[in-house]
Amino acid sequence: MSPNKGILHSYKNYLPVTSATPMLTLHEGDTPLIHLPTLSEEWGVNLYVKTEGVNPTGSFKDRGMVMAVAKAKEAGSKAIICASTGNTSAAAAAYGSRAGLRTIVVIPAGKVALGKLAQASMYGAEVFEIEGNFDQALDMVRDVSEKEDVTLVNSVNPYRVEGQKTSAFEICDALGTAPDVLCIPVGNAGNITSYGKGFKEYDVARGTGQPQLFGFEAEGAAAIVQNQVVREPETLATAIRIGNPASWWAALETVKQVGGGFDAVKDEEIVAAYRGLAKAEGVFAEPASCASLAGLKKKIANGEIKKGSTVACVLTGNGLKDPAAALDTNDIEPIRIPNETETFLSHLHRKEGV
Ligand code: F0G
Protein backbone atom coordinates (compact mmCIF):
# COMPACT_ATOMS: atom_id res chain seq x y z
CA MET A 1 0.00 0.00 0.00
CA SER A 2 1.35 3.42 -0.88
CA PRO A 3 1.71 5.83 2.05
CA ASN A 4 -0.80 8.65 2.30
CA LYS A 5 0.89 11.82 1.06
CA GLY A 6 -2.04 14.06 1.95
CA ILE A 7 -5.00 15.34 -0.02
CA LEU A 8 -3.21 17.93 -2.17
CA HIS A 9 -1.10 15.13 -3.58
CA SER A 10 -3.79 12.41 -3.73
CA TYR A 11 -6.48 14.57 -5.34
CA LYS A 12 -4.52 17.23 -7.22
CA ASN A 13 -6.55 16.59 -10.37
CA TYR A 14 -9.75 17.48 -8.53
CA LEU A 15 -8.38 20.44 -6.58
CA PRO A 16 -7.15 23.94 -7.49
CA VAL A 17 -3.53 22.77 -7.18
CA THR A 18 -1.15 24.46 -9.65
CA SER A 19 2.60 24.21 -10.15
CA ALA A 20 2.86 27.26 -7.85
CA THR A 21 0.88 25.68 -4.98
CA PRO A 22 3.05 24.59 -2.04
CA MET A 23 2.40 20.87 -1.39
CA LEU A 24 1.64 21.44 2.26
CA THR A 25 0.69 18.35 4.27
CA LEU A 26 0.42 16.81 7.72
CA HIS A 27 -0.80 13.62 5.99
CA GLU A 28 -4.47 14.45 6.32
CA GLY A 29 -7.20 12.40 4.67
CA ASP A 30 -7.37 8.67 3.94
CA THR A 31 -9.48 8.23 7.07
CA PRO A 32 -11.17 4.89 7.85
CA LEU A 33 -14.73 4.14 6.77
CA ILE A 34 -15.75 1.76 9.54
CA HIS A 35 -18.66 -0.66 9.30
CA LEU A 36 -20.86 -0.75 12.41
CA PRO A 37 -22.22 -4.32 12.74
CA THR A 38 -24.18 -3.86 15.97
CA LEU A 39 -26.03 -0.68 15.01
CA SER A 40 -26.57 -1.97 11.44
CA GLU A 41 -28.36 -4.99 12.87
CA GLU A 42 -30.31 -2.96 15.43
CA TRP A 43 -31.46 -0.27 12.97
CA GLY A 44 -31.89 -2.43 9.87
CA VAL A 45 -29.48 -0.53 7.63
CA ASN A 46 -25.99 -1.18 6.32
CA LEU A 47 -24.19 1.45 8.39
CA TYR A 48 -20.71 2.93 8.03
CA VAL A 49 -19.01 5.82 9.78
CA LYS A 50 -16.38 8.04 8.19
CA THR A 51 -14.03 8.68 11.09
CA GLU A 52 -12.70 12.16 10.40
CA GLY A 53 -11.34 12.36 13.94
CA VAL A 54 -8.37 10.33 12.66
CA ASN A 55 -7.06 13.39 10.80
CA PRO A 56 -3.85 15.06 12.12
CA THR A 57 -5.58 17.59 14.38
CA GLY A 58 -8.51 15.28 15.08
CA SER A 59 -11.21 16.70 12.80
CA PHE A 60 -12.38 17.05 9.19
CA LYS A 61 -11.19 20.65 9.19
CA ASP A 62 -7.69 19.51 8.21
CA ARG A 63 -8.84 18.68 4.69
CA GLY A 64 -10.17 22.18 4.09
CA MET A 65 -7.42 23.92 6.00
CA VAL A 66 -4.52 22.36 4.12
CA MET A 67 -6.03 23.64 0.87
CA ALA A 68 -6.90 27.10 2.20
CA VAL A 69 -3.50 27.61 3.85
CA ALA A 70 -1.60 26.37 0.78
CA LYS A 71 -3.50 28.84 -1.40
CA ALA A 72 -2.94 31.66 1.11
CA LYS A 73 0.78 30.88 1.03
CA GLU A 74 0.75 30.69 -2.77
CA ALA A 75 -0.86 34.15 -2.90
CA GLY A 76 1.90 35.55 -0.67
CA SER A 77 -0.24 36.01 2.45
CA LYS A 78 1.64 36.33 5.74
CA ALA A 79 -1.26 35.78 8.12
CA ILE A 80 -4.52 33.82 8.44
CA ILE A 81 -7.55 34.49 10.64
CA CYS A 82 -10.68 32.56 11.63
CA ALA A 83 -13.58 32.44 14.05
CA SER A 84 -14.16 29.05 15.56
CA THR A 85 -16.11 26.81 17.89
CA GLY A 86 -12.74 25.04 18.32
CA ASN A 87 -11.86 22.63 15.56
CA THR A 88 -11.26 25.22 12.86
CA SER A 89 -8.92 27.08 15.20
CA ALA A 90 -6.94 23.90 15.93
CA ALA A 91 -6.57 23.11 12.22
CA ALA A 92 -5.74 26.72 11.28
CA ALA A 93 -3.12 26.87 14.02
CA ALA A 94 -1.49 23.59 12.95
CA TYR A 95 -1.35 24.31 9.22
CA GLY A 96 -0.53 27.97 9.86
CA SER A 97 2.50 27.01 11.91
CA ARG A 98 3.51 24.38 9.36
CA ALA A 99 3.38 27.01 6.60
CA GLY A 100 5.11 29.69 8.69
CA LEU A 101 2.11 32.03 8.80
CA ARG A 102 0.87 34.18 11.65
CA THR A 103 -2.40 32.61 12.86
CA ILE A 104 -5.12 34.58 14.64
CA VAL A 105 -8.23 32.86 16.03
CA VAL A 106 -11.36 34.24 17.70
CA ILE A 107 -13.49 31.94 19.84
CA PRO A 108 -16.60 32.25 22.03
CA ALA A 109 -15.42 32.47 25.66
CA GLY A 110 -16.21 29.41 27.77
CA LYS A 111 -17.77 27.45 24.90
CA VAL A 112 -14.79 25.70 23.35
CA ALA A 113 -13.85 22.14 24.35
CA LEU A 114 -10.63 21.92 26.32
CA GLY A 115 -8.69 19.78 23.85
CA LYS A 116 -9.31 22.24 21.03
CA LEU A 117 -8.15 25.18 23.10
CA ALA A 118 -5.01 23.26 24.10
CA GLN A 119 -4.31 22.55 20.43
CA ALA A 120 -4.60 26.16 19.28
CA SER A 121 -2.24 27.29 22.04
CA MET A 122 0.28 24.50 21.45
CA TYR A 123 0.48 25.21 17.73
CA GLY A 124 1.23 28.83 18.58
CA ALA A 125 -1.87 30.68 17.41
CA GLU A 126 -2.82 34.06 18.83
CA VAL A 127 -6.07 33.20 20.58
CA PHE A 128 -8.73 35.82 21.32
CA GLU A 129 -12.00 35.05 23.08
CA ILE A 130 -15.11 37.21 22.98
CA GLU A 131 -18.12 37.51 25.27
CA GLY A 132 -20.27 36.42 22.40
CA ASN A 133 -21.04 33.44 20.20
CA PHE A 134 -19.49 31.99 17.06
CA ASP A 135 -21.72 34.03 14.73
CA GLN A 136 -20.51 37.28 16.30
CA ALA A 137 -16.90 36.11 16.15
CA LEU A 138 -17.33 35.32 12.45
CA ASP A 139 -18.72 38.81 11.80
CA MET A 140 -15.64 40.26 13.51
CA VAL A 141 -13.04 38.26 11.59
CA ARG A 142 -14.83 38.88 8.28
CA ASP A 143 -14.65 42.59 9.00
CA VAL A 144 -10.97 42.46 9.98
CA SER A 145 -10.03 40.40 6.91
CA GLU A 146 -11.52 43.14 4.72
CA LYS A 147 -9.61 45.89 6.51
CA GLU A 148 -6.25 44.15 7.02
CA ASP A 149 -3.87 42.06 4.95
CA VAL A 150 -4.89 38.74 6.47
CA THR A 151 -6.56 35.75 4.80
CA LEU A 152 -9.88 34.53 6.16
CA VAL A 153 -9.84 30.72 6.48
CA ASN A 154 -13.39 30.01 7.65
CA SER A 155 -15.47 27.87 5.31
CA VAL A 156 -16.65 30.99 3.44
CA ASN A 157 -13.16 30.70 1.90
CA PRO A 158 -13.94 28.59 -1.21
CA TYR A 159 -10.70 26.60 -0.86
CA ARG A 160 -12.00 25.13 2.40
CA VAL A 161 -15.00 23.64 0.61
CA GLU A 162 -12.68 22.28 -2.09
CA GLY A 163 -10.44 20.45 0.37
CA GLN A 164 -13.30 19.03 2.40
CA LYS A 165 -15.01 17.48 -0.63
CA THR A 166 -12.21 14.87 -0.79
CA SER A 167 -13.85 12.86 1.98
CA ALA A 168 -16.73 12.09 -0.40
CA PHE A 169 -14.20 10.70 -2.90
CA GLU A 170 -12.78 8.39 -0.25
CA ILE A 171 -16.22 7.09 0.72
CA CYS A 172 -16.93 6.23 -2.92
CA ASP A 173 -13.54 4.54 -3.29
CA ALA A 174 -14.09 2.47 -0.13
CA LEU A 175 -17.61 1.33 -1.09
CA GLY A 176 -17.10 1.16 -4.87
CA THR A 177 -20.07 3.55 -5.29
CA ALA A 178 -21.67 6.36 -3.33
CA PRO A 179 -23.82 5.18 -0.39
CA ASP A 180 -27.63 5.55 -0.68
CA VAL A 181 -27.64 8.09 2.12
CA LEU A 182 -25.10 10.38 3.80
CA CYS A 183 -25.88 11.79 7.27
CA ILE A 184 -23.84 14.70 8.55
CA PRO A 185 -23.89 17.22 11.42
CA VAL A 186 -24.51 20.83 10.42
CA GLY A 187 -23.14 23.94 12.09
CA ASN A 188 -22.00 26.64 9.68
CA ALA A 189 -23.18 24.36 6.81
CA GLY A 190 -19.87 24.34 4.94
CA ASN A 191 -19.19 20.62 5.22
CA ILE A 192 -22.52 19.38 3.85
CA THR A 193 -21.92 21.70 0.89
CA SER A 194 -18.46 20.17 0.43
CA TYR A 195 -19.77 16.61 0.45
CA GLY A 196 -22.47 17.49 -2.08
CA LYS A 197 -19.83 18.96 -4.39
CA GLY A 198 -17.51 15.99 -3.90
CA PHE A 199 -20.12 13.32 -4.67
CA LYS A 200 -21.26 15.26 -7.72
CA GLU A 201 -17.76 15.68 -9.15
CA TYR A 202 -16.85 12.04 -8.56
CA ASP A 203 -20.09 10.93 -10.18
CA VAL A 204 -19.27 12.99 -13.28
CA ALA A 205 -15.69 11.65 -13.37
CA ARG A 206 -16.34 8.02 -12.40
CA GLY A 207 -20.09 7.33 -12.42
CA THR A 208 -20.21 6.59 -8.68
CA GLY A 209 -23.71 8.07 -8.16
CA GLN A 210 -24.88 10.57 -5.57
CA PRO A 211 -26.39 9.91 -2.14
CA GLN A 212 -29.34 11.63 -0.55
CA LEU A 213 -27.93 14.16 1.92
CA PHE A 214 -29.38 14.52 5.41
CA GLY A 215 -27.99 17.33 7.57
CA PHE A 216 -28.66 17.52 11.30
CA GLU A 217 -28.52 20.62 13.48
CA ALA A 218 -28.73 20.65 17.26
CA GLU A 219 -32.25 21.58 18.34
CA GLY A 220 -31.09 24.67 20.25
CA ALA A 221 -29.17 25.91 17.21
CA ALA A 222 -31.43 24.88 14.33
CA ALA A 223 -31.57 27.95 12.12
CA ILE A 224 -31.95 26.11 8.82
CA VAL A 225 -34.67 23.81 10.16
CA GLN A 226 -36.62 26.71 11.69
CA ASN A 227 -35.88 28.93 8.71
CA GLN A 228 -34.77 31.75 10.96
CA VAL A 229 -31.60 32.99 12.62
CA VAL A 230 -31.18 31.74 16.20
CA ARG A 231 -29.84 34.72 18.17
CA GLU A 232 -28.74 32.73 21.20
CA PRO A 233 -27.86 29.23 20.05
CA GLU A 234 -27.37 26.66 22.81
CA THR A 235 -26.36 23.01 22.77
CA LEU A 236 -24.04 20.66 24.59
CA ALA A 237 -22.54 19.94 21.15
CA THR A 238 -20.49 23.15 21.26
CA ALA A 239 -18.89 22.53 17.85
CA ILE A 240 -22.26 23.19 16.17
CA ARG A 241 -23.48 25.93 18.52
CA ILE A 242 -24.16 28.24 15.56
CA GLY A 243 -27.28 30.30 14.94
CA ASN A 244 -26.63 31.91 11.57
CA PRO A 245 -24.84 29.45 9.26
CA ALA A 246 -22.65 31.19 6.69
CA SER A 247 -23.27 28.56 4.00
CA TRP A 248 -27.02 28.35 4.66
CA TRP A 249 -28.16 28.99 1.08
CA ALA A 250 -25.42 26.90 -0.54
CA ALA A 251 -26.35 24.00 1.72
CA LEU A 252 -30.07 24.28 0.90
CA GLU A 253 -29.29 24.33 -2.80
CA THR A 254 -26.96 21.32 -2.46
CA VAL A 255 -29.62 19.22 -0.73
CA LYS A 256 -32.33 20.33 -3.16
CA GLN A 257 -30.32 18.88 -6.04
CA VAL A 258 -29.98 15.34 -4.66
CA GLY A 259 -32.81 14.93 -2.17
CA GLY A 260 -32.65 14.42 1.57
CA GLY A 261 -33.21 17.30 3.97
CA PHE A 262 -32.41 19.03 7.24
CA ASP A 263 -33.67 18.14 10.68
CA ALA A 264 -32.88 18.93 14.30
CA VAL A 265 -31.85 16.53 17.06
CA LYS A 266 -32.18 17.09 20.80
CA ASP A 267 -29.11 17.12 23.06
CA GLU A 268 -30.46 13.95 24.77
CA GLU A 269 -30.56 12.20 21.40
CA ILE A 270 -27.02 13.34 20.61
CA VAL A 271 -25.77 12.07 23.98
CA ALA A 272 -27.52 8.71 23.55
CA ALA A 273 -25.88 8.28 20.12
CA TYR A 274 -22.50 9.45 21.49
CA ARG A 275 -22.50 6.96 24.34
CA GLY A 276 -24.08 4.15 22.32
CA LEU A 277 -21.50 4.44 19.55
CA ALA A 278 -18.56 4.21 21.92
CA LYS A 279 -20.03 1.38 23.97
CA ALA A 280 -21.46 -0.76 21.19
CA GLU A 281 -18.90 -0.18 18.46
CA GLY A 282 -15.66 1.04 20.08
CA VAL A 283 -15.74 4.36 18.21
CA PHE A 284 -15.35 7.59 20.19
CA ALA A 285 -16.42 10.74 18.38
CA GLU A 286 -17.13 14.16 19.83
CA PRO A 287 -20.77 15.04 20.66
CA ALA A 288 -21.44 17.24 17.60
CA SER A 289 -20.29 14.42 15.33
CA CYS A 290 -22.94 12.15 16.78
CA ALA A 291 -25.75 14.42 15.59
CA SER A 292 -25.38 12.46 12.33
CA LEU A 293 -26.13 9.14 14.06
CA ALA A 294 -28.88 10.59 16.25
CA GLY A 295 -30.49 12.02 13.13
CA LEU A 296 -30.20 8.75 11.25
CA LYS A 297 -31.99 6.93 14.06
CA LYS A 298 -34.81 9.47 13.92
CA LYS A 299 -35.16 9.21 10.13
CA ILE A 300 -35.24 5.41 10.18
CA ALA A 301 -37.94 5.52 12.86
CA ASN A 302 -40.13 7.91 10.82
CA GLY A 303 -39.54 5.99 7.58
CA GLU A 304 -37.75 8.79 5.69
CA ILE A 305 -34.65 6.59 5.47
CA LYS A 306 -35.55 3.12 4.27
CA LYS A 307 -34.48 -0.08 6.00
CA GLY A 308 -31.84 -1.87 3.95
CA SER A 309 -30.19 1.37 2.79
CA THR A 310 -26.43 1.72 2.77
CA VAL A 311 -25.73 4.73 4.96
CA ALA A 312 -22.54 6.65 5.75
CA CYS A 313 -22.56 8.89 8.82
CA VAL A 314 -19.80 11.46 9.03
CA LEU A 315 -18.09 11.54 12.43
CA THR A 316 -16.49 14.93 12.12
CA GLY A 317 -14.27 15.07 15.22
CA ASN A 318 -12.40 12.90 17.72
CA GLY A 319 -14.01 12.15 21.08
CA LEU A 320 -10.78 13.03 22.91
CA LYS A 321 -11.24 16.67 21.95
CA ASP A 322 -13.88 17.07 24.64
CA PRO A 323 -13.09 14.96 27.71
CA ALA A 324 -15.43 17.07 29.88
CA ALA A 325 -18.43 16.09 27.76
CA ALA A 326 -17.54 12.43 28.13
CA LEU A 327 -17.17 12.62 31.90
CA ASP A 328 -20.26 14.82 32.38
CA THR A 329 -22.56 12.52 30.41
CA ASN A 330 -21.30 9.31 31.95
CA ASP A 331 -22.11 8.13 35.44
CA ILE A 332 -19.52 5.36 35.45
CA GLU A 333 -16.79 6.18 37.95
CA PRO A 334 -13.60 4.25 38.63
CA ILE A 335 -14.02 1.93 41.62
CA ARG A 336 -11.52 2.86 44.32
CA ILE A 337 -9.81 -0.19 45.85
CA PRO A 338 -6.91 -0.79 48.19
CA ASN A 339 -3.68 -2.01 46.71
CA GLU A 340 -4.49 -5.74 47.29
CA THR A 341 -5.20 -8.53 44.82
CA GLU A 342 -7.72 -10.30 47.09
CA THR A 343 -9.99 -7.25 47.35
CA PHE A 344 -9.58 -6.64 43.65
CA LEU A 345 -10.70 -10.22 42.92
CA SER A 346 -13.70 -9.95 45.21
CA HIS A 347 -14.82 -6.85 43.25
CA LEU A 348 -14.34 -8.67 39.95
CA HIS A 349 -16.35 -11.69 41.13
CA ARG A 350 -19.32 -9.48 41.97
CA LYS A 351 -19.80 -9.05 38.22
CA GLU A 352 -21.24 -11.99 36.37
CA GLY A 353 -18.96 -13.77 33.95
CA VAL A 354 -15.62 -12.53 35.32
N1 F0G B 1 -18.73 18.73 13.58
C1 F0G B 1 -17.69 19.30 14.20
C2 F0G B 1 -16.89 18.45 15.12
C3 F0G B 1 -17.35 20.65 13.95
O1 F0G B 1 -16.30 21.18 14.56
C4 F0G B 1 -18.17 21.40 13.07
C5 F0G B 1 -17.87 22.81 12.81
C6 F0G B 1 -19.24 20.76 12.44
C7 F0G B 1 -19.50 19.44 12.73
C8 F0G B 1 -20.14 21.45 11.49
O2 F0G B 1 -19.53 21.67 10.25
O3 F0G B 1 -19.78 24.12 10.17
O4 F0G B 1 -19.20 22.83 8.13
O5 F0G B 1 -21.48 22.68 9.12
N2 F0G B 1 -17.01 23.48 13.45
C9 F0G B 1 -16.61 24.84 13.13
C10 F0G B 1 -15.39 25.23 13.94
C11 F0G B 1 -17.69 25.83 13.10
O6 F0G B 1 -15.18 26.42 14.17
O7 F0G B 1 -14.62 24.36 14.31
P1 F0G B 1 -20.02 22.90 9.35
UniProtKB/TrEMBL annotation:
Signal peptide: none
GO biological process: isoleucine biosynthetic process; L-serine catabolic process; L-threonine catabolic process; threonine biosynthetic process
InterPro entries: Ser/Thr_Dehydratase (IPR050147), Ser/Thr_deHydtase_PyrdxlP-BS (IPR000634), Thr_synthase-like (IPR004450), Thr_Synthase_bac/arc (IPR026260), TrpB-like_PALP (IPR001926), TrpB-like_PALP_sf (IPR036052)
Protein EC: 4.2.3.1
Modified positions (N6-(pyridoxal phosphate)lysine) in chain numbering: 61
One Pfam family named in its UniProt record: PALP
Regions crossing the membrane: none
Keywords: Amino-acid biosynthesis, Lyase, Pyridoxal phosphate, Threonine biosynthesis
Gene3D superfamilies: 3.40.50.1100
Physiological role: Catalyzes the gamma-elimination of phosphate from L-phosphohomoserine and the beta-addition of water to produce L-threonine.
Name used for this protein in its record: Threonine synthase
